[in-house]
């Protein structure tokens, strides 16, 4: 039976998500994998089903728009294609002149493969107007031949961005050949696969050498391409090499995707994920790794090359441990998306949909208890993402849309509720805080975790994204960070940051990427009872002209922000941005400033000395503290930009059409060249104006100290004290022997003290706590390495050597 005959069966009749996934990934409808080892031909069928959905999508009304989009893209791409005999390129706007010498030509070659893939999808997806069109097939084959003869062949020089030669092009080559397997001549298929082997012979290594090992998503991408090229030309060695690269068999497991790491790229025990050595990247590279492994595991399941690594549970656990904490109603928080925030076609919900698709693809073969939990998570995310729909979305593959549709329609799957917890991820300097009506996280940087990533003409103005940018998510404006926020926001006024206004050049220039490092070791914090948290950052800006100590306190219904020791040089004004909230033009809400209801016109500003309330969003209360700012400026600003300006990448660049947003901007000025200045304010997300004014009159929190050495906050209603010490110091009865984050919580007859060292510079911390020692004479529980030194005063020793910034707790009883 021909592959095309198998892939066009109507498989959607199967009931249940596991059944649909099994139908998409095996040669017959049903759950799980084929009962007998799959042949190479059956594996091609599986891969093709992953790409096309494997069914006639015109029979599924919910997919009509997605199918129409495929038809339209195929028509437009085919119509613009140069099919003349003397052509040197397939499309006039992306000439191949200089291939092998020019970075631009390399980018254009990659775009050629992308467009041929789009044409191949139109040809292969059942139900399109072009499905099975022999002329379209002939033109695709002719185009592949031109690239094989002139642009992508063994022995060529890999000029420009290595990624296109070794990952982007091989992935597109194997996918096109999978879609067109029945019609592409064997010699052409062989020559294209030979080129893929030439540029990426071994998925474990960069290029043709063995000096730079691939890690994370790059290793997964190469593994998938390697396995597929082996399947396409019946090369069992390549299939095995692709599978084994996931576990890094050749390297003894050193760079295995299934191995937890303690440094460098990969998954950490606390749920962190690092890529490119320094950046929290689960939202993009992590999703790519997860999706790629899911596709490989399912594609070769039941065959002689099945992935049997017993450590693969590491990746299964990562769904809930790494990814889920940073998903807000189907969106992946930008704090772990790196330079992808600048990609117009890939906003937060698109990466969220990619994660959901990977989770649904992995669920059937994961087994219990994973299967049920994965399906519940995915259904909850899909249902709460009310302003976007994964089913039928033009950025999604039909197969993933089918899986999403099926889980939504499956009454047996009960959606997981939105999370309500607080978690610290010490290995990536991130804390995430979920409350019933809002969520928050902050991007900090250290001498371990970089400020932001730029490169390949992407994220050109991301200078301050890791300098304390504070994200607040709610359900009144889900699209806050996906609706033209990044091309229009003032990059010098990102929420939560303290910056000087010295003009800066673009952060990107051509091929290659870079992650500007931070200088100081202190960034991170701790969580308490999975309910509250504190994060601190010893901030020294990119050219060391501005220093500040910054703390964030995450409470039940409040985020409290403290700044101290703000000192600048160089003659530039220094600002802290309390908020910079985006709205559609003309749609900024009412603002109450110090109890007065005002309607600010675009360009207007007012000064607040006590509080600001932004209707439908949040309240802000200025708090008294040492060196704290006494007022803030509230403005409505209209800003116009374009996506091309922040990302002109070859295959990710945005449009140059202008986009405009209005902003409610709240800033506190520290003046020019400030010395030891500070700020203190509360954010009350989802609060009404009366609650804002109550906290202005009588704040529910007390700033105990706010200096360059320590920042401490008391929450009397919860018998809770949180804080950061940036050096050995004493304040308000506390004495810390070195830099640390601390939390003291009294709960009835128990007292819990938690300590972490975000700087990772202390082998131990000795902490004196201002409580009556005789009341706390017994130990109810204690983490290893925590001891009581004395009870009068209460002094504790926390052994933190090799602890990598993770927290330890001791609980005392009366």
List keywords for this structure.
814 residues; alpha+beta; Beta-galactosidase, Chain A, domain 5; Chondroitinase Ac, Chain A, domain 3; nine-stranded antiparallel β-sheet; seven-stranded antiparallel β-sheet; 18 helices; 37 strands; 29% helix; 25% strand; disordered N terminus
Topology (elements, then pairings):
Elements: H1 3-7, H2 17-25, H3 40-52, H4 64-79, H5 103-124, H6 134-150, H7 162-179, H8 186-199, H9 216-232, H10 236-247, E1 266-267, E2 273-275, E3 279-280, H11 282-300, H12 313-323, E4 327-328, E5 331-332, H13 348-366, H14 370-384, H15 398-409, E6 422-425, E7 430-434, E8 438-443, E9 454-455, E10 469-474, H16 485-488, E11 498-500, E12 513-514, E13 523-528, E14 532-540, E15 546-554, E16 559-568, E17 573-583, E18 591-593, E19 596-598, E20 605-608, E21 611-614, E22 618-622, E23 632-641, H17 643-646, E24 659-672, E25 677-685, H18 689-697, E26 702-706, E27 710-715, E28 720-725, E29 729-731, E30 734-736, E31 740-747, E32 750-756, E33 764-769, E34 778-782, E35 786-791, E36 794-799, E37 808-813
Antiparallel strand pairs: 1-2, 2-3, 4-5, 6-7, 7-8, 8-10, 9-12, 11-17, 13-14, 14-15, 15-16, 16-25, 17-24, 18-19, 18-21, 20-23, 21-22, 22-25, 23-24, 26-27, 27-28, 28-31, 29-30, 30-33, 31-32, 32-37, 33-36, 34-37, 35-36
Pfam families: Lyase_8, Lyase_8_C, Lyase_8_N
Family: Belongs to the polysaccharide lyase 8 family.
GO molecular function, one term: carbohydrate binding
């Amino acid at each position: 039976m021909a592959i095309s005959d198998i892939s066009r069966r109507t498989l959607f009749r199967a009931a249940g998500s596991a059944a649909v996934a099994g139908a998409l990934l095996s040669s017959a409808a049903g759950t799980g994998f084929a009962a007998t080892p799959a042949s190479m031909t059956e594996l091609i069928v599986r891969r093709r089903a992953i790409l096309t959905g494997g069914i006639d999508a015109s029979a599924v009304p919910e997919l009509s728009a997605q199918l129409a989009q495929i038809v339209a893209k195929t028509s437009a791409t085919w119509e613009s294609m140069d099919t003349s005999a003397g052509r040197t390129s397939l499309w006039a706007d992306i000439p191949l002149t200089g291939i092998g010498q020019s970075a631009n030509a390399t980018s254009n070659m990659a775009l050629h493969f992308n467009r041929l893939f789009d044409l191949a999808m139109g040809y292969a997806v059942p139900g399109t107007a072009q499905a099975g069109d022999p002329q379209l097939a002939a033109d695709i084959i002719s185009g592949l031949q031109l690239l094989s003869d002139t642009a992508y062949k063994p022995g060529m020089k890999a000029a420009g961005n290595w990624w296109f030669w070794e990952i982007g092009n091989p992935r597109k080559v194997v996918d096109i050949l999978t879609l067109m397997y029945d019609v592409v001549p064997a010699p052409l298929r062989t020559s294209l696969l030979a080129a893929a082997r030439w540029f990426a012979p071994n998925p474990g290594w960069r290029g043709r050498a063995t000096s730079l090992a691939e890690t994370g998503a790059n290793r997964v991408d190469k593994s998938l391409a390697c396995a597929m090229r082996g399947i396409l030309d019946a090369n069992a060695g390549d299939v095995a090499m692709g599978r084994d690269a996931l576990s890094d068999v050749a390297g003894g497991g050193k760079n295995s995707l299934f191995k937890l790491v303690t440094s460098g790229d990969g998954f950490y025990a606390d749920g962190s994920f690092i890529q490119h050595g320094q950046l929290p990247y689960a939202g993009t590279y992590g999703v790519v790794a997860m999706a790629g492994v899911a596709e490989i595991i399912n594609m070769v399941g039941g065959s002689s090359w099945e992935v049997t690594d017993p450590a693969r549970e590491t990746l299964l656990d990562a769904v809930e441990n790494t990814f889920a904490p940073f998903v807000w109603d189907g969106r992946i928080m930008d704090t772990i998306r790196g330079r992808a925030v600048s990609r117009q076609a890939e906003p937060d919900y698109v990466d969220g949909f990619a994660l959901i698709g990977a989770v649904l693809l992995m669920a059937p073969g994961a087994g219990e208890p994973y299967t049920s939990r994965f399906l519940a998570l995915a259904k909850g995310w899909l249902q709460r993402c009310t302003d976007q729909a994964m089913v039928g979305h033009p950025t999604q593959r039909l197969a993933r849309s089918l899986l999403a549709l099926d889980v939504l329609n499956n009454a047996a799957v009960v959606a997981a509720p939105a999370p309500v917890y607080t978690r610290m991820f010490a290995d990536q300097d991130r804390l995430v805080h979920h409350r019933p009506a809002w969520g928050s996280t902050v991007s900090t940087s250290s001498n371990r975790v970089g400020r932001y990533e730029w490169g390949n003409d992407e994220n050109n103005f991301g200078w301050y994204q890791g300098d304390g940018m504070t994200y607040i998510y709610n359900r009144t404006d889900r699209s806050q960070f996906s609706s033209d926020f990044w091309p229009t926001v003032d990059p010098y006024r990102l929420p939560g940051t303290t910056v000087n206004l010295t003009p800066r050049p673009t952060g990107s220039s051509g091929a290659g990427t870079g992650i500007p490092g931070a200088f100081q070791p202190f960034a991170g914090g701790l969580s308490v009872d999975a309910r509250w948290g504190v994060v601190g950052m010893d901030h020294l800006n990119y050219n060391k002209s501005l220093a500040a100590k910054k703390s964030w306190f995450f409470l039940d219904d409040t985020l409290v922000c403290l700044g101290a020791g703000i000192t600048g040089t160089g003659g530039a004004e220094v600002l802290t941005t309390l908020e910079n909230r985006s709205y559609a033009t003309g749609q900024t809400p009412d603002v109450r400033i110090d109890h007065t209801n005002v309607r600010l016109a675009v360009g207007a500003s007012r000064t607040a000395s006590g509080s600001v309330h932004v209707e439908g969003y949040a309240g802000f209360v200025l708090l008294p503290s040492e060196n704290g700012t006494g007022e803030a400026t509230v403005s409505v600003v209209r800003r116009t930009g374009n996506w091309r300006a922040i990302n002109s990448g070859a295959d990710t660049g945005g449009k140059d059409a202008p986009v405009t947003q209005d902003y409610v901007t709240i800033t506190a000025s520290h003046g020019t060249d400030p010395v030891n200045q500070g700020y203190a304010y509360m954010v009350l997300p989802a609060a009404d104006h009366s609650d804002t004014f109550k906290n202005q009159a009588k704040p529910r929190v007390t700033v105990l100290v706010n200096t360059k050495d320590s920042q401490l906050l008391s929450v009397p209603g919860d018998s809770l004290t949180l804080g950061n010490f940036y050096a050995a110091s004493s304040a308000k009865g506390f004495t810390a022997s070195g830099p640390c984050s601390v939390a003291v919580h009294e709960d009835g007859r128990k007292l819990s003290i938690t300590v972490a060292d975000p700087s990772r510079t202390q082998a131990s911390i000795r902490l004196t706590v201002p409580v009556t020692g005789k009341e706390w004479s017994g130990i109810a529980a204690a983490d290893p390495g925590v001891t009581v030194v004395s009870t009068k005063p209460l002094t504790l020793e926390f052994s933190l050597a090799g602890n990598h910034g993770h927290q330890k707790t001791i609980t005392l009883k009366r």
